[in-house]
Amino acid sequence: MDHDTDPVTGTYSDEPRLALLTHAEARETVELLQAVEQLDPDGRGRAAGQLAADLARRLPEP
Asked: Which pLDDT band, with edges at 50, 70 and 90, does 52 fall under?
């Protein structure tokens, strides 16, 4: 069975789907990633800071 080419079947609700994260949760995630960047004593926190910046740019203005 090839999962990449098999059609998706099933019934789906017409109800609106919720976002994976709410706006508040996404903002909190960015803040936590920035904290991780500051707390990493070995300098590897830059990756968390970069991810925080990337996510922050994708969020709509409050």
From this structure: very high
In a domain, 9, yes or no: no
Q: Is 18 inside any structural domain?
A: no
Q: Structural domain tally of the chain?
A: 1
Identity of residue 34: Q
7: amino acid identity, one letter: P
Burial (Cβ within 10 Å: 0-12, 13-18, ≥19) of residue 33: buried
- Nearest C-alpha neighbor of 34 from the set 24, 25, 45: 45
Range of the domain at 39: 23-58
User: Tens digits of per-residue pLDDT, 20-48?
Assistant: 788 899 999 999 999 999 998 787 788 88
User: Is the overall model pTM greater than 0.90, yes or no?
Assistant: no
